[in-house]
Specification:
Helix content: 25-40%
Largest sheet: 6 strands, antiparallel
Strand order of the largest sheet: 1-2-3-6-5-4
Number of strands: 6
Number of domains: 2
Order of helices and strands: EEEEEEHH
Number of helices: 2
Structural class: alpha+beta
Distance between the termini: 66 Å
Length: 175
């Protein structure tokens, strides 16, 4: 495989049970196939320790603004986005194969963001609530109001059409 950042040939490195492609003689970037990054992205996961030791060729200059092609799906442009809600580390992800490209040093910064996945989930939920919480509450209240109106209408129809009334068959209970 060819490195998407510096075009140097990449080498496969086996870390525990994970085969990761590394740009050892170039920019020091790491390619993770689908679901591999989540096995090394937390500080307590020992598999990621050896990957932090991979260096880079100091002569190599990388243009971080350049769009990168997936090293596996060679005709697919990768999407650049933040790794987490902290928006400290920007990574590249292939929309086709689900692989991740990390530039030199990004794995270490990712591992230092959260001590565990539970904290990451908690921060993400707080951020989601901060951004969408008011709107979701409003939508929930409106839907509750609509359900109550529907129940009132159904109660009225039970007297008009008693043969359609079968106790307990409605998902929200009998009239």
């Amino acid at each position: 495989m060819k490195c998407p950042a510096c075009d140097a040939p990449m080498e496969e490195v086996i870390v525990e049970d994970i085969a990761i492609d590394v740009c050892k003689h170039g920019c020091g970037g790491l390619w993770f196939d689908r679901f591999e990054l989540q096995k090394v992205d937390e500080p307590h996961e020992s598999a990621g320790e050896s990957l932090l030791q991979i260096g880079m060729d100091r002569k190599e200059t990388i243009d971080h603004s350049k769009r990168r092609m997936c090293p596996k799906c060679t005709d697919m442009v990768m999407m650049r986005h933040f790794f987490s809600v902290k928006q400290e580390v920007e990574i590249d992800e292939c929309p086709s194969c689900g692989g991740f490209w990390l530039d030199y040093g990004e794995l270490g910064r990712i591992r230092n963001q959260y001590p565990a996945e539970e904290e990451q989930r908690k921060v993400a939920n707080e951020y989601f609530d901060e951004i969408f919480g008011v709107e979701l509450k409003k939508m929930h209240d409106e839907s509750e109001e609509k359900v109550e109106k529907a129940k009132k209408i159904a109660r009225m129809f039970r007297f008009i059409c008693p043969s359609n009334y079968i106790p307990g068959q409605q998902k929200w209970g009998a009239f």
